[in-house]
Amino acid sequence: MYRHILSAVDFIVLWGDYSMKSGFTNGADADTGSAKASSGKEGKAFLLFETTGNEKIYRHSDSILVSLPEGRKTLTTSWLNGGYREDVRAIFNHTIPKGKHAPKELEGGTVPAYLRIIAERLGVDPNTSSGLLTAANMDNVAIVTKSFRGVEVTAVMTAGIEVNGGRAGDPASYYQEDGSHQFIQGTINMILIIGADLPDYAMARVIITASEAKAAALQQLMAPSKYSAGIATGSGTDMIAVVCDGTSSLTLTDAGQHSKLGELIGKVVIECSHKALEMQSDLSALSQRDMLVRLERFGITEVDYWKVASGLNGANRKAAFLKVLREMGKNPVLVSATASVLHIVDEISWELVPETAGRKIAISVMKGLPAVLGIDDNIPFNELTDEKDSVIDNWVRVTAWMAKNCEHTGLCEQEKD
Length: 417
Hints:
This protein is of the alpha+beta class. It has helices spanning about 110-120, 200-220, 260-280, 290-295, 300-310, 320-330, 330-350, 355-365, 370-375, 380-385, 390-405, 405-410, 410-415, and strands spanning about 10-15, 20-25, 30, 45-50, 55-60, 65, 70-75, 85, 90-95, 130-135, 140-150, 150-160, 165, 190-195, 235, 240-245. α2 crosses α3, α6 packs across α11 (about 390-405) and α7 packs antiparallel against α8 (about 355-365).
């Protein structure tokens, strides 16, 4: 019932009632829609999905289990049977119980011992299993499959980044000594199943392509790092498992971006990342259409806005100010202007544009707000802006004044409409 045919057939899987809708396409590509799993009864598992290669994906109460036929080759970042293996028959993604902050707090006292315990509870052999760990809820798993001319790539992913999003090169959280390890919540875990045979070096290349695709998805969402003002490239605890079919008559040796396999990997990972992040972290294109959300990356909060606003002309009514600020922050034009200004800030930090020139252009964008917003042009820009101050400071002063004095610009009327 759950298998889909590897051809030009497109299946949309509706997990709520396990129904399938099929239709035919004209091209050689075939996709399945992403999926959100429904919860099963405690201690029981049900089949979520089956690939054309007979890899079966099961949903347990706190785990996703991928059962592998014989002849599969795996490359994983797991503590349990990690690295390159040819004897792994099951891979699982497991939610760590809440309140666990160190390996010694887990059953077994170490991560490998804990994974062996979980494998046994899932009914698989710990000696031929590999496991990933996360704090994400398994209700929020996303599954995406794409295929081309007999090559099928399936991504199974959970993604939490609201706490632990980070950018490569950010300040470290700890220095590992004597084997010590810290659990930091927030993880993007992915299992990639490839319906072809790959040599071990090509499987390693899959990890590079998948990691680049994950970073691209986070860039598209402007996901903030929690450890710097940068855009996140992942979390500090991300894990991955790559599976390929060693029994396949089709051997592929290139998983890079120029290959069709690399394209498929990129597409499934980007789409799967978007779906999983929206379900687990409420991170989506829609949630990012907010000036205040965009400014969080730079440490700007409503508290900072009120601190600035309270020193500007106008009545100091905090509740009224914050209400207008929140409504104003969702104005699509203002969000677009915010994105433009913040990108200038990024380019200054990357040394792509000189700081003085960047500040001058950013202030010119601010001075153009009345025209693009269609409001009265009586904002005292000469008092609010200073090219010697940072772009962010100037932006906060200008938009704080607009929110506090919205009745003088006509902006309040727009928000009511």
